[in-house]
Structure formats: structure tokens, C-alpha cells
Design brief:
By secondary structure, this protein is α+β, with helices and mostly antiparallel strands. The chain has helices at residues 8-17, 32-43, 62-69, 77-80, 95-109, 117-127, 136-157, 170-177, 211-214, and strands at 54-58, 83-90, 161-165, 184-193. Helix 2 (32-43) runs antiparallel to helix 7 and helix 5 (95-109) runs antiparallel to helix 6 (117-127). The two termini are 27 Å apart.
Amino acid sequence: MNATTFAPQEVLKQLEWRYATKEFDSSKKIPEDVWQVLEQSLVLSPSSFGLQPWKFFVIRNPEIRQQLVEHSWGQKQVVDASHLVVLAIKEDVDKKDVDTYLQRMSEVRNVSLDKLEGLANMVKGYLNQPSEVFDKDAWSAKQVYIALGFFMFTAAMLKVDTCAMEGIEPAKYDEVLGLKDKGYSTAVACTAGYRSANDKYANMPKVRFKTEDVVEYID
């Protein structure tokens, strides 16, 4: 049985449709039911070991968003988009975070913690590698980027525009949002909303290398 919900060409059409939106229509807001799906795309994103070393901060306060423009290379998407999401890593993930996750797994799957001891020891051992060979924060950032991809793909399928923003000052974001006090640090931001009719980039052809130059089959 074919479980595909979307026709293959429909998916490709939406991937062609999406682009890094430079100018949002500030008058258009994402409907709440659509936003809830986008929010869940973050929650349901996969991560290594399922550990979810992240938190997603949705900045709704317009004054705070205005402050962040200065720390975003002056990019107006931060204030004009319907939503601004700051994707942050949990700093210095450790065994307590593993215990918290396994407690949640025990609740959701109705399995005793004793039966999860082997998994717990494996994950804790992985995280306990020497810092010179394993950068935990860099590892956590990789997980956050998986969530970013899920969010942007889901948005494209819902015909919501996005712009991933690495052109920001993460330390300043942390300062404005008080993230350090919460044990998190900014990895990347993403704006979401609806493109302005004046955005000249909306109809520009995508510049991508040829498929055969970036995809190689090894039989």
C-alpha cells in the first residue's frame, strides 16, 4: 500500500517555491492552526539518541524583536515576519539531561527505568568523552539544525515563507533574551510568514549545482 500523502511532483513544486525570503509582508500573520503545525514540526524533529538538546524560543514581544534587529545585521525580517524563532542549544548537556529524557521515555512508553539502564549508560558514556575529542555544544548545534530543516520543510509544504538567519550575533541574542540564565545559547534564528509582493528575490531562479555534480550513486 502506498502511504504517500503528497504526490512527488507536488513536493518538488513546493521545494522550488520556497526561497530565503528577504522581505516579508508585515500585515500578514500565520493563522494559529497553521502555526501549531509548525510548532509541532520542531517538537517532533529527530535528534541523536532522541535526546533533544535544544529549546525553541518564539519571540512575540515586538519591542524585543526591534532590539534584535541591531544584532541581526540590520535585517528587517526579524520584525516584519509573522513569527521569529530562536533555536538554541542546551549548554553542556550532561547525565542529568539523559536522566530527564529517560524519565520522559519511561512515562510515555510505560517502561520501567531499570529496563532503560543500558541505554542510559551508553548515552552518558558518549557524552562523557574527553572535550578534546568531543565538543558537546557543537554536537548539540548539529541537532538544532536538523530541527531547523524540519521546520523549513514543513513551512514550505504549508506555503509559509521562511528565512534561516545565521547573520546574527548569537551572544547578543543570548543577552537580550536572557538565555544564559536559562542554560541555553543561540545557534540560529528563523523567521516565518508571508513574502512581500515587492521582494525581488521571490521569482529569481534557484542557483543550484547540477544533480549529477552533487549526487553520486555507489553501487
